[in-house]
Design brief:
The complex is a heterotrimer. Chain B is of the alpha+beta class. Helix content of chain B is about 45%, strand content about 15%. By secondary structure, chain C is an all-alpha fold. Classes of the chains: A mainly alpha, B alpha+beta, C mainly alpha. Chains A and B meet through α4, α10, α11, α12 and α13 of A and α1, α2, α3, β7 and β9 of B. Bound molecules: heme-A (2 copies), dinuclear copper ion (CUA) and copper (II) ion.
Chain lengths: ~525, ~375, ~290
């Protein structure tokens, strides 16, 4: 146990500890950020391999590689791992690395708790993955685990799934508390809320969403546990409960959850586009208000996932209208990005390429979302591949591309070396082509009537499935370039300057590349960008 | 693995993509007034989105092309404009309202469940559908009829691969038909694209939906809510007949009932029961307990060597007739007729080396009367 | 803003140990609960659970002890203090949302699901599946009485629950008084009022236990009694757990006050616990209204 003398020292001693204990015991926001990012990458690969298993089975009609039982397990685990294991931790990793540097703080507000937030995750996911080896198999009821398929009819491993979800929830809540405390309390003197970089703003709002909805997820899995093992009837009409109640509670969590996966992405893109357009972000204030509006609206749209469960008409109309409204603040964001590029002086380094692809492809995903929001039309789209196309467009070239963009954007800052630009561009183009070849045909499949979560399909769906599978393998294997590029960037490469990019502004770019172990030991001088540019 | 069907298998693998050269990339217009208005709604919204995309991406690509540093572009300094920002908040709102109006109209129309001429209760089971014509003596199950050999690629896949059933739902054309949807176990969803009807079947609750199909024809759909292992294998086929043909079909159902009752009176030998039982087993039990009765450890119990199969037949019969509450084991008393029940129980008790011995049709009939 | 340097703690062993304990607890609980229906593996699960819980307890003692030491050394600036405050406030907010899920459940079944099952409203057709079922609240008979036999009687809200309400409300007052006395640095008084709070908390728990016994043995109000029992126990049960935790924390604070911790102007640990206690109290008022009274 660090004795007191040691702790006192740590305020003025710098540099990481040696060996494995550096990572196990760390209280440093950068080390923890790195851990989160590596963990996320690992999960992305595991979840990706599951996706490839799914795609391989769907390459042709008929059952060839895996049985339906296992197929359902793959779909479920793929969704869960990508959402909770890959995308969310990646954004927490970015927050850990960047927020203290952006607000001029030495570290996160609660560094020990920060470590705890991270280290719960590997245990939670080991438990989640270990269900694959259990008798009866892993959870097979979809990442949305609707009761009673996930209660009365679930394999015994569901109990471990429930506890794994609890652990992830604890981790996310603590992580979010830390982010909020850091942002609200650790800004350099003089930095007002409306001076903060947008990445910080979007994370502040995301953290609020996390704290508001992760406990609800914990509540709903707790009710499942009670129904399965203690004889309650929350989701059983025979005792006066309702299976649809599960869906209401789940989606009250679930819809804000999807914005948890996109708001930080908005933040990242809002940092990158101005940098490479060499022009200040257009409409800073409206960006902040739009983000907040999206977050608030996200609490009252949940039942758009449930249009077919037989909601009363007023409910159906209410949720249709509120959902459609979300297009307005999201549109403001898109327009602002475009206006930022307009009459800029643009260059197209890899982070910018990923961000541009983000704007286009996310918007396409948003449009399909808007179509889904139209309740009577959703009766035709619901639970088809049209939905799968929608959410992969917002999640893969949306969230995942923004994470890639962020990685390329900040890697030189983190490592002190430039990555290999040619390889980055290759990675981008292959990913861009791969993603579209994979997910665009899914729109056609869905409209033509292919349900989701099926291991085998009617013959008229054969061609597009084959195309999608080709695309998935192309996209998947292109990610190896990314890994190679990251590793070689950590090891070697051209030295990066402190500012790294010609157009970069902000406190994080005043620190050397790589930054000192404790970011700002003294509060840096800060002038509001508003004052600077009038 | 299975080596015999190799040639066939290869034929099957390469056959599939070839036959389906006509690509379907859009919603179908369907066969009802509702499905057509949904289609129109879909197209309108789609075109609006395309138009917005053209404008937004147009400006973006314009900038990418002209305002690039390599062309010597210098960055401008503007970074906000209240008027522009207000404008592009208001305009989308107006566009959205113009979408919401037709959407609401169609939705309200869909929710008008009044004045139906025929009520059909549809119940989802893992993994088949049950159709009960209320106020009529028609009640049957409808399950996948694609042979397993096609699914495992040992046989060439038929035209309606995975979209065919043993007994389709039959309804008259031109009449408003109300569906009352519920489920026996987990949530299913009854979806026929051509009717634009998709409604969840929820255990313990009843959902309502309706349709009126103009033209006779055969319309196919699938279960649209993940409902376990064979979710991908519970299709829906609706056969719409002209009112006259429909009346004939109704009459036919009544005579089939009589035939069935007669067969229950007849003496069945064990050998006959075994043959019939095997067929019933494959159709109703094998999905869970597996073809060889081996089950799936931890999920579905094995029947091979199970004490239930060799012990007192009463317990075995009870399990099959009434199911096991709280598990996936269904009550088959309502799904199968007396002969089928006797046959399948006999089969389970004697197949795969089980030594339980036969049960008789009469035995079952007695129990069912109670 | 304070010019004091921000204190970044050195490496710490506690978090990783806490993660391991949490894993042991979760894994143990999972195994144990699964053993309920599989009748094997129970001992193993229980072992893991106890091991995890025990080590978690020790770790928390060590970890908080460490923080208290640091605080005692004056390492924490005002800014640090604010970080703790933000942390605690948002943690309580997360707890509020946890309860919100269960309150939401209660309202949903009461206002929508049960009436639908009983034949009212837009989905009243559902009653065709449960002929004879009448919707009432509290739900005395369930749609399927064989599976969920419904309670025989109900708890009289004006008896034990009312007493408990008074107990908790007054405990909120006593803890506030203790806080004022601490600010005035009148330590013996602080001890007295805190002690009173702890006693009130314990009394609440005793009554709650009595009420559960009555519910199970006399009223047939159990977890398996249908949706009323289910919502009743999940809400009161989780609340009870929070009272237990709160009482424990108050006790620790009491011991610390006796040891001479906390300064009149610097006592965040004390405040955090009292915030928590007020939160538990507010939840109870909600419970009393919606679970017992209305
Ligand atoms: C990052 C994740 C993310 C994001 C950002 C979104 C964004 C949106 N989503 Fe999506 N969604 C998911 C992830 C996401 N979704 C997931 C994972 C599921 C499936 C879950 C499951 O069942 O497994 C899902 C499912 C889903 C459904 C349920 C479908 C079904 O099951 O039947 C619906 C229905 O309304 C929906 C709607 C929307 C809408 C309206 C938006 C909006 O926020 C989009 C807004 C954006 C735009 C509209 C584009 C930009 C705007 C302009 C350029 C302005 C001008 C435009 C107009 C005026 C039209 N989504
Ligand atoms: C952020 C979330 C996220 C991400 C990134 C992805 C990424 C991908 N997803 Fe999916 N997906 C979901 C979230 C996500 N998904 C969700 C929530 C569902 C719903 C689940 C449900 O229905 O319950 C779903 C469902 C889903 C389905 C539908 C399954 C069904 O309905 O049965 C499909 C089918 O094609 C699919 C495919 C893919 C593919 C090909 C990728 C690719 O982008 C993945 C690419 C990545 C890799 C391939 C890994 C990296 C590369 C390598 C490791 C190379 C080396 C490889 C080998 C050696 C094999 N996903
Ligand atoms: Cu039944 Cu899916
Ligand atoms: Cu949503």
């Amino acid at each position: 146990m660090g004795s007191i003398e040691q702790s006192v020292q740590s305020t003025d001693h710098h540099g990481p500890a040696k060996g494995i204990t550096r990572w196990l015991y760390t209280t440093n926001h950068k080390d923890i950020g790195t851990l989160y990012l590596l963990f996320s990458l690992t999960m992305f690969f595991i979840g990706g391999c599951m996706a490839l298993t799914i795609r391989a089975e769907l390459f042709q009609p008929g059952l060839q590689l895996i049985m339906p039982e296992f197929f359902n397990q793959m779909t479920t685990m793929h969704g869960l791992i990508m959402v909770f294991g890959a995308v969310m931790p990646a954004f927490v990793g970015l927050a850990n690395w960047m927020i203290p540097m952006m607000v001029g703080a030495p570290d996160m507000a609660l560094p020990r708790m920060n470590n705890w937030s991270f280290w719960i995750l590997p245990f939670a996911f080991s438990m989640m993955l270990s269900t694959l080896l259990m008798e009866g198999g892993a959870p097979n009821f979809g990442w949305t685990f609707y009761a009673p398929l996930s209660t009365t009819y679930a394999p015994p491993s569901v109990t471990f799934f429930i506890f794994a979800v609890h652990m992830m929830g604890i981790s996310s809540i603590m992580g979010a508390i830390n982010v909020i405390a850091t942002i609200l309390n650790m800004r350099v003197p003089g930095m007002k809320l409306m001076d903060m970089p947008l990445f910080v703003w979007t994370w502040l709002i995301t953290a609020f969403l996390l704290i508001a909805v992760m406990p609800v997820l914990a509540g709903v899995v707790t009710m499942m546990l009670m129904d399965i093992h203690f004889g309650t009837s929350f989701f059983d009409a025979a005792g006066g409960g309702d299976p649809v109640l599960f869906q209401h509670v789940f989606w009250f969590f679930g819809h804000p959850e999807v914005y948890i996966m996109i708001l930080p992405a908005f933040g990242v893109v809002s940092e990158i586009i101005p940098t490479f357009a060499r022009k200040r972000l257009f409409g800073y204030a409206s960006m902040v208000y739009a983000t907040a509006s999206i977050a608030i609206l996200s609490f009252i749209v949940w039942a758009h996932h449930m249009f077919t469960v037989g909601l009363p008409l007023v409910g159906e109309l209410f949720f249709m209208y509120t959902t459609m409204l979300i297009a307005v603040p999201t549109g403001v964001k898109v327009f602002n990005w475009v206006a930022t590029m307009f009459r800029g002086s643009m260059t197209f380094e890899t982070p910018m390429l990923f961000s541009l692809a983000f704007v286009v492809l996310f918007t396409i995903g948003g449009f399909s979302g808007l179509m889904l929001a139209i309740a009577p039309a959703d009766f035709q789209y619901h639970d088809t591949y049209f939905v799968v196309a929608h959410f992969h467009y917002v999640l893969v070239p949306g969230s995942v591309f923004s994470i890639m963009a962020a990685a390329y954007f900040w890697l030189p800052k983190w490592t002190g070396h430039m990555y290999n630009e040619a390889m980055g561009k290759l990675h981008f183009w292959l990913s861009f082509i791969g993603v579209n070849v994979t997910f665009f045909p899914m729109h056609f499949l869905g409209l033509a009537g292919m349900p989701r979560r099926i291991p085998d399909y009617a013959l008229q769906f054969a061609d597009f499935n084959m195309v999608a599978t080709f695309g998935a393998f192309l996209f998947g294997f292109s990610q190896l370039i990314f890994v190679y590029n990251v590793i070689s960037c950590i090891r070697s490469g051209k030295k990066a300057t402190a500012q790294v990019w010609e157009g970069s502004h902000g406190l994080e770019w005043t620190l050397s590349s790589p930054p000192p172990y404790h970011s700002f030991t003294e509060p840096p001088a800060f002038t509001s960008p508003h004052r600077a540019n009038g | 693995m299975r080596r015999n069907g190799r040639a066939l298998l290869f034929a099957g693998l390469f056959y599939a993509p070839l036959v389906s050269a006509d690509w379907q990339v859009n919603l179908i217009e369907g066969a009802t007034e509702i499905s057509r208005s949904v289609y129109n709604l879909h197209m309108v919204i789609f075109y609006i989105c395309v138009a917005i995309a053209v404008i937004v991406f147009g400006v973006m690509f314009w900038s990418i092309f002209w305002h690039r540093k390599s062309r010597g572009a210098k960055a401008a300094h503007f970074h906000e404009s209240t008027w522009v920002e207000i404008a592009w908040t208001i305009v989308p709102v107006i566009i959205l309202v113009s979408m919401a109006v037709p959407a609401s109209t169609t939705l309200i129309q869909m929710y008008d469940k009044n004045s139906a001429e025929l009520d059909i209760q549809i119940t989802g089971y893992q993994w088949k559908w049950r159709y009960q014509y209320l106020n009529q003596d028609i009640d049957f199950f409808s399950s996948l009829s694609t042979p397993p050999e096609q699914i495992s690629n040992e046989q060439i896949k038929g035209e309606n691969y995975l979209l065919e059933v043993d007994k389709p739902l039959v309804i008259p054309a031109g009449k408003k038909i109300r569906f009352l949807l519920t489920s026996n176990d987990v949530i299913h969803s009854w979806w026929v694209p051509a009717l634009a009807v998709k409604k969840d079947a929820i255990p313990g609750f009843v959902n309502e939906s309706w349709t009126r199909v103009d033209q006779p024809g055969i319309y196919r759909g699938q279960c649209a809510e993940l409902c376990g292992r064979d979710h991908g294998f519970m299709p829906i086929v609706v056969e719409v007949k002209s009112p006259e043909d429909y009346q004939m079909w109704v009459a036919e159902q009544a005579s089939l009932k009589v035939v069935e009752q007669q067969s229950a009176q007849k003496e069945w030998s064990q050998a006959e029961l075994m043959i019939r039982g095997e067929a019933v087993y494959k159709a109703s039990c094998a999905a869970c307990h597996q073809l060889e009765g081996q089950g799936i450890p931890g999920v579905f119990p094995a029947l091979v060597g199970s004490p239930l199969m060799s012990g007192d037949s009463a317990e075995h019969i009870d399990a099959v007739l009434h199911g096991r509450s709280g598990t996936a084991m269904q009550a088959f008393a309502e799904q199968l007729n007396t002969v089928d029940l006797a046959a399948v129980i006999t089969y389970e008790r004697s197949a795969w080396g089980n030594q339980g011995g036969a049960v008789t049709v009469q035995q079952i009939a007695e129990l069912l009367k109670e | 803003m304070s010019s004091q340097a921000y204190y970044v703690p050195a490496q710490s062993r506690w978090p990783i140990l806490a993660s391991v304990s949490l894993f042991l607890m979760a894994y143990g609980a999972g195994t144990l609960i699964n053993a309920l229906s599989a009748d094997s593996g129970g001992l193993l699960g229980l072992g893991f659970l106890l091991l995890g819980a025990l080590s978690m307890g020790l770790i928390l003692v060590g970890w908080f002890g460490h923080v208290i030491d640091e605080s005692g050394q004056g390492l924490y600036s005002d800014q640090m203090d604010r970080s703790f405050r933000w942390g605690m406030s948002w943690f309580i907010f997360s707890e509020v949302m946890f309860f919100a899920a269960f309150f939401g459940t209660l309202f949903y079944v009461r206002i929508l699901a049960v009436p639908w099952l009983g034949g009212e409203g837009e989905k009243g057709v559902s009653n065709m599946l449960w002929q004879g079922f009448k919707a009432t609240w509290p739900l005395m008979s369930t749609p399927d009485m064989k599976a969920f036999p419904g309670p025989k009687g109900l708890i009289d809200p004006l008896h034990l629950p009312l007493i408990n309400t008074l107990l908790l409300l007054s405990s909120s007052v006593t803890v506030t008084v203790a806080h004022y006395r601490l600010k005035q640095d009148r330590r013996p008084q602080v001890i007295l009022w805190l002690l009173l709070t702890v006693v009130l908390g314990c009394a609440f728990l005793v009554f709650q236990a009595l009420e559960y016994i009555e519910a199970y043995h006399e009223l047939g109000l159990t977890l398996q009694a249908g949706i009323y029992g289910a919502t009743f126990f999940i809400l009161t049960g989780f609340h009870g757990m929070h009272v237990t935790l709160g009482t424990l924390m108050l006790l620790i604070i009491l011991l610390r006050v006796i040891r001479g911790h906390f300064a009149p102007d610097h006592h965040f640990g004390f405040e955090a616990v009292s915030w928590y206690w007020h939160f538990v109290d507010v939840i109870w008022v909600g419970l009393f209204l919606f679970v017992y009274l209305l």
